[in-house]
Amino acid sequence: MLNMQEFGNRVQLIREDVLLMTQAQLAEKLGITQVLLSRLERGIGGNINTVFDIVNYLYSQDIAGMYIFSDHFSIDMVSEKSNNPVAVGSQIEELIKAMQKTINNDMDKLLMKLSLQNPKNS
Fold first, then answer.
1. Is this model's pTM higher than 0.70 or not?
2. In a 3-state reduction of DSSP, which class is residue 54?
C-alpha cells in the first residue's frame, strides 16, 4: 500500500523530472503554498484534497493518476507515457548533449593518435 512518504517522493520525481517545475511553480498551479507542497513531498503534510488537486493537475498535463499510484512506479514509465512536450524536449536535449560529448571525446582521441603518428619536424 502506498504511504504518504512514498506518494510525496513520487510527486517530487514527477515534478522535477517530467514537469520540470520548482516547488513554487507547482504550488502556484495547485493553489497551495510552497511550504505545504514541500511537506507533502516529504510525507509529513497534505490532505486528501491536496492529493486530489495533484492528481487532477497531473491529468491536465496528460499524466494519468494510475502511474503515481502504481505498484511498479518508475519515473521512466511516467516520462515515456507523458505527452508533455517540455519533458520530451528535455530528454532529447540531454541525449544530444551526451552524444556530442562522446563525439568530442572520440575526436580528441583521434587527433591525439594522428599527432603521434605524424609528428611535426621542427
1. no
2. helix
